[in-house]
Amino acid sequence: MKSKSGRLPRVNRFCFGNHHFDPASGTATLTYSFDEGAELEERIVFPYQPWPSDPSRQAAFLRALEILHVVAGVSYWKSCVPPEMDLGGIALDDATASFFHDLYVYGLAEFAWNNDIELEGRVSFKASGTPAAPLDLDLPSRSLLAMGGGKDSLVSLEILRKAGHEFQPVCVGGSSLIADTVQAAGLPLVRIERLLAPQLAQMNDAGALNGHVPVTAINSAILVCAALLYGYRNIVFSNESSASEATFTDRSGRAVNHQWSKSLEFEQGFQKLLAARVSPDVAYFSLLRPLNELSIAQRFSHLTRYHGVFSSCNRNFHLEGSRIEGRWCGNCPKCRFTSLALAPFMNPGQLSDITGHDLLNDPEQEAGFRALCNLGADKPLECVGSVDESRAAIKHLADDPSWQGHHVVRVLAKALQNIQVPSMTGLLDARSEHCISDQELVDALA
After folding, report:
1. Paired sense of beta strands 234-237 and 13-22, if any
2. What average pLDDT does range 236-252 have in this prediction?
């Protein structure tokens, strides 16, 4: 919570400056500032310099860009958490102000917990007017599919392909791993570039507050803009039902969810915001929301063409590039959970061929797996499945001759003996509430 001088930075006001799009270069510019300080400029580059000829789509894009301006501002506001927000010419109604309040408070809940600060009272979005009526758009019934380099988006890709649905893989950022997975699918990839204001890194080095931001919310807003530029009705993500589970509850009783911007709560709120401020003809949803992590892992276990190219290790995915060599570090919550989720559907050799490690037979990994199962330690602040899923996987593996002798399986199964654990079958059959607008895609999940 403290700057390097030991105090919160003395900043009173955060200003949302201007947002602008240059059709000639395909570049959107977002500006911000603190008090009377220098302007911070972020740029989003959409390739192929798209600009729709339809005036309604042009207007809808500019409205979506306004939303992106506020959403992306979370990366900068959090560095000083000033109590006053100046929105300039952006008019918010009550519902929109409430949505942005929740985004900054719950999307930054992990950041606030790690920095020991209270965000309520500092997040000050206020209603200031009534937005224009949403626009009617004639968009093609096709989808932009957000790709992340891991198993989830690849499962979505194959569901869309099997359903005969027209779609385009897209990503934000420059990860070569994402490109590898899409190349393995035999498809082209649209890559959108996000260039943060360079002063942000300088501020962090000087002692500004730093920590986890709701990056999925930012990428979602970017892809809504992309859908309007390129002409796609659906913006499809691959967030599962497990993402809605709180990571833990803080001392004040507030839920802290590392994956809040992947949750059903965010998805529903964002879709409602788009329908009210942009157009009801734009559909934002997660294709995998009805499924949990174990069900997705079961499906992915059959997609062998991707087993050698995907990675769910987050040390591979940073703005400045990968922090490891290879695809798996073998010593993080994501590597552990991916191993645990896939193990019920593979033998030890098959899993080791993918990750290069046999984590479930490594005594040094026991503490990390205990945390996944909430056995004496909190679930880690990472994009991992629910505690019930982790426990169910351990119990299932304890009955599998090929896995039951593995150290982590043997020890944790014993620790779970007196705890009620749901069955794997029940979890695999479970279906969750979702926002999928196309019934053919719902049917394709069956």
Report:
1. unpaired
2. 90
Task: Give, in order, the Cα–Cα distances in Å from 139 to each of 63, 321, 400, 444.
Answer: 16, 35, 50, 22
Multiple choice CATH, 13-286, 3.10.450, 1.10.357, 3.40.50, 2.60.40: 3.40.50
- Kindly state the tokens that stand for 10: 């003395």
Q: Collect all residues with Cβ–Cβ distance below 8 Å to 63 and sequence separation of at least 6.
A: 132, 135, 277, 278
Phi, psi of 396 (to 5 degrees): -65, -45
pLDDT at residue 128 tops 50: yes
CA-to-CA separations, 111 to 5, 42, 201, 214, 326, in angstroms, rounded: 19, 21, 17, 10, 29
d(CA 324, CA 305): 23
The verdict on pTM exceeding 0.85 is yes
Domains in the chain: boundaries: 13-286, 293-429
Query: At CA 175, angle to CA 170 and CA 179, rounded to 5?
Result: 55
pLDDT at 195: 97
Tell me which residue of 263, 257, 400, 410 sits closest to 342, measured CA to CA: 400
What phi, psi does 308 have (nearest 5°)? -95, -5
